[in-house]
Amino acid sequence: MKEWARKLNNAEPSAIIFHISRCGSTLLSQMLATSDENIVLAEVPFFDDLLRLPFKEPGFKVPEIDKLLISAIKHYGQNGQSKRLFIKTDSWHLFFYEQLRRLFPLVPFILMYRSPDEVFRSHRKQAGMQSVPGLIEPQIFGITADDLEAMSPDVYLARVLENYLSRYLEIASIDNHFLLINYNEGPVEILEKVISFTKIRVDESDLKKMHERSQNHSKKPNEPFHEEKIENIPPCLTSAMELYHLLEEKRKAQ
Q: Coil, helix or strand for 108?
């Protein structure tokens, strides 16, 4: 694969989109993908397989995985007529931040998030992989096997969200090339911020298509978007909510 990748004509990443799940990253990816100028790689399973190799096959070391990942991105990012490449990670790839920043030191990182009570309720309605205890290696989230045994599913999900937000705050304190985006800013405003931050040029016809895509639900494209009202916040989310408000202060000051 590494030998093959050397001969490929691929687009270089314009941005890498991190997220804590259920916070608008899928819709943003779909909006960007409406343009023929863009390649959007959203939660590519093979990228996840490579990043998690050390947990499954300890013989694989990070330097070798780095080479494989770069080769895989070149393969998936073959550009044809497209000029730009956007990579949307799986949410837990946030904990591979150092590895990805080392590989892409100048690429803009977009950090998307949402109030944890809203994310929590979304996963309780339709569970994602990271919300099911043990489905993703818990040590990726900073959770030990002993901790896992003592946790209820709700406490586990709350801890995952808490660790996501803690990681965002850490990144915000050390990285000089990132953009914080809150789901509640709205899809059109989010798109405009991403276009400005990444310094890409989008013509009017593509922008119109992106705006049209923003009107519908990301997971159910044929349905208009409808926001559910949140009433009671579970006690297990107290720490996550505190971290969320700290992150909001960072975003508003950015």
A: coil
pLDDT band at residue 219, thresholds of 50, 70 and 90?
low
In which region does residue 15 sit, left (phi positive, over 0), alpha (psi from -120 to 50) or beta (all else)?
beta
Q: Which of 8, 149, 138 is nearest to 85 (CA)?
A: 8
What is the average pLDDT value for the chain, to the nearest integer? 92
For 148, other C-beta atoms within 10 Å of its C-beta total 15
Three-state SS annotation for 31-91: HHHCCCCEEEEECCHHHHHHHCHHHHCCCCCHHHHHHHHHHHHHHHCECCCCCEEEEECCH
Rounded Cα distance between 218 and 190, Å, is 14
pLDDT digits (tens, 9 = 90+) for 51-63: 999 999 989 999 9
Q: What is the pLDDT of residues 98-108, one digit of tens each?
A: 999 999 999 99
pTM above 0.90, yes or no: yes
- Residue 251 identity: R
In this structure, what DSSP letter does residue 94 have?
A: G
d(CA 122, CA 204): 34
Write out the two tokens for 64: 């070798």
